[in-house]
Please model this.
Amino acid sequence: MRGGCYQGRAQGKPISIRSLTQVIAELTEIGLSMSKKIEMMKAKKQKAKENHVVCHQKFQARIQEAEDSMQAQHLIIETLVEEKDGLLQTIQGLQEANGDPAPFNDEWEEEPEEQPEEEEIGEIPLDEGEIDDE
Model:
């Protein structure tokens, strides 16, 4: 080594130890900055995973709540159907006890819709309601 210059050459120019030291310092600083950024990205990734787990758990809880609600509604419907059947049997028993000829059954008889009769427009006498030009 002569005069503070490295004997190697970069693109045909001598490289000083000072510039090598400066390049190493800059690269070290860049490396540290990149390491910090990587750590921050890892922390963000971990936080995102945790948030995802929390959201997933909340979503699963909502699904379970909806399923429970649907099951409860299904049980209520079954109970109402059974109660309706019991009431229909009671009605049928009362009808039979009263001697009604047609016992009530589960099928509803629909009454035919009555067609409203169209009002016929009667002939209006010509002498009524006319304007007299005279």
Q: What stands out?
A: The mean pLDDT is 81. The radius of gyration is 48 Å.
